[in-house]
């Protein structure tokens, strides 16, 4: 019985939390005593505790990760170039760490990263902005400043969005939740056929303008809902109501090229134009 208990104790690794390692300018400076804390406790410290090493890499990954940034158009028409992102090269880091662990010295470990490329670079953006496929304008009363601000926020959110072939666009996903913290204000909305006030009132004018701009042969409307009463900014039956936790406006790109959304709101006019390349063609056949 005593022998069995002893074997159970020895056979169960005792994991001790390793002290945090400081990362500065993507370099880790490690003293031998700091390296040794990543050894496998109790059983044999000459072996690395993979659990601790993976936790270290998880921590480093969150510190070194940089989100790539797509190229985009500024309001004046200039293209702002893309920016590469960066992510931890886990395989290379593990190799370098093990090499340092089994050496008998202190050392500096340059944390290896690999580039994360954006989906949209300047060349692509320039190429898919040459041909206008569709455009639509609606108008609003600028004296309602809260509604005007909401329209501007939603228009800016969808502006510069690129939808690749066979990809779908979700208005709610792209615009995000309409909250006070994100700058949205209370303005008139339609709820069950009645006028009321709610955060984000007015953004349905953005989704409705977008719907009319993308109502093209090469765009499949996947999800669209009409308001429960007529709205003044589009003809009857040409609206697309949206609500967080509720109706969404979703469409799919069936062209052979990416399409670009350019949206703006100024001087009481909401404008959406859909662009692509000169070689854009509609995909025939199954839309699935």
UniProtKB/TrEMBL annotation:
Pfam families: VanW. This is Peptidoglycan binding domain-containing protein. InterPro entries: Glycopeptide_resist_protein, Vancomycin_resist_VanW. Keywords: Signal. Residues 1-18 form the signal peptide. The lineage of its organism: Bacteria, Bacillati, Bacillota, Bacilli, Bacillales. It comes from Oceanobacillus profundus.
């Amino acid at each position: 019985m005593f022998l069995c208990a002893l074997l159970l104790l020895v056979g169960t690794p005792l994991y001790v939390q390793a002290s945090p390692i400081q990362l500065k300018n993507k370099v880790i400076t490690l003293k031998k005593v700091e390296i040794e804390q990543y050894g496998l406790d109790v059983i044999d410290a000459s072996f690395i505790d993979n659990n601790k090493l993976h936790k270290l890499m998880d921590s480093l990954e969150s510190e070194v990760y940089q989100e790539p940034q797509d190229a985009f158009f500024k309001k004046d028409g200039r293209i702002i170039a893309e920016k590469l992102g960066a992510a931890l090269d886990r395989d290379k880091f593990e190799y370098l760490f093990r090499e340092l662990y089994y050496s008998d010295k202190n050392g500096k470990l340059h944390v290896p990263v690999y580039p994360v490329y954006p989906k949209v670079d300047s060349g692509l953006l320039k190429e898919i902005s040459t041909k206008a496929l569709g455009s639509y304008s609606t108008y609003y009363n600028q004296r309602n400043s809260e509604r005007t601000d909401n329209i501007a926020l939603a228009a800016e959110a969808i502006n510069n969005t690129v939808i690749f072939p066979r990809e779908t666009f979700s208005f709610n996903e792209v615009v995000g939740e309409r909250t006070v913290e994100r700058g949205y204000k209370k303005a008139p909305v339609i709820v069950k056929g009645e006028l009321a006030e709610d955060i984000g009132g007015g953004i349905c004018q953005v989704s409705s303008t977008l719907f009319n701009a993308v109502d093209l042969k090469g765009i499949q409307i996947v999800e669209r809902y009409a308001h429960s009463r007529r709205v003044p900014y589009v003809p009857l039956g040409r609206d697309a109501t949206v609500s967080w936790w509720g109706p969404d406006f979703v469409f799919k790109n069936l062209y052979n090229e990416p399409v670009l959304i350019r949206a703006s709101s100024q001087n009481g006019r909401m404008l959406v134009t859909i662009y692509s390349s000169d070689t854009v063609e509609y995909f025939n056949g199954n839309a699935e």
